[in-house]
Design a protein that fits this description.
alpha/beta, 8 strands, globular, about 30% helix, Rossmann fold, about 220 residues
Length: about 220
């Protein structure tokens, strides 16, 4: 995580778990003593968004930025002007959680001037259990569309293959195989393997990519 650029953009198909990855990533940065802001730019998905856990995140040291209209269960096409502060303030480690399709990626357009080559990372969160991203060709098609709309370049792949609490080691390894195939095809490195904490001891020790232990912040205990 220390090798990543100060500005991190997180994208991925709907249901990939990109918001969960974003929240966990931001919390890990805060635990390292960093000054962290997390912007929820997801204006597409109504469920499991980082803004819904703003109070909990701020207690953990993460400043959450979202729509300035306080309606967490309603979609509003407005993004707080507050986003500009951590873009301009180099003292922040900034994580940007973006909507899960081309429509969502358009939210990045207004900030494109801040995304200079070599000064940001954009992580593509890949869940091989999602029908839309189960093959290399489908993943590449999606990645190209997101890059074209957002006018930003993907710099890393995150294997976040899961079935929520029913996730198995086999799921993760299947996602790892697909992520490595995408890496070989594009030259974009596999940067992280996002894994529920209790599964980590059962994983092979030689997996390519950095393992990021995660908790399910965005799902209540009663949810599957």
């Amino acid at each position: 995580m220390l090798k990543d650029k100060r500005i991190r953009i997180v994208i991925g198909h709907y249901g990939s778990g990109k918001s969960e990855f974003s929240v966990n990533y931001a919390v890990k940065l805060a635990e390292m003593g960093r000054k962290v802001a997390l912007a929820d730019l997801d204006i597409v998905n109504m469920y499991f968004r980082s803004r819904e856990k703003a109070k909990e995140m701020e207690e953990l040291g993460v400043k959450v930025i979202a729509s300035h209209i306080n309606t967490p269960a309603v979609e509003v096409p407005s993004i707080a002007a507050e986003v500009y502060a951590p873009l301009q303030d180099n003292s922040y480690d900034f994580v940007i959680d973006v909507g899960g399709d081309q429509v969502g990626a358009r939210a990045l357009g207004r900030y494109v001037d801040y995304f200079k080559d070599g000064e940001y990372d954009m992580f593509f969160v890949l869940n091989a259990n999602r029908p839309e991203t189960q093959s290399v060709d489908k993943v590449l098609e999606y990645m190209i569309k997101i890059q074209d709309v957002s006018r930003a370049r993907i710099s890393g792949i995150v294997n976040n293959t899961h079935l929520l609490k029913a996730t198995s080691v086999e799921d993760i390894l299947r996602g790892q195989k697909l992520a490595l195939e995408v890496q070989d095809k594009t030259g974009i490195p596999l940067r992280y393997i996002s894994v529920l904490e209790d599964l980590i001891p059962d994983l092979p020790k030689d997996l390519e990519g950095e393992i990021l232990p995660i908790k399910l912040f965005l799902r209540d205990e009663w949810m599957l």
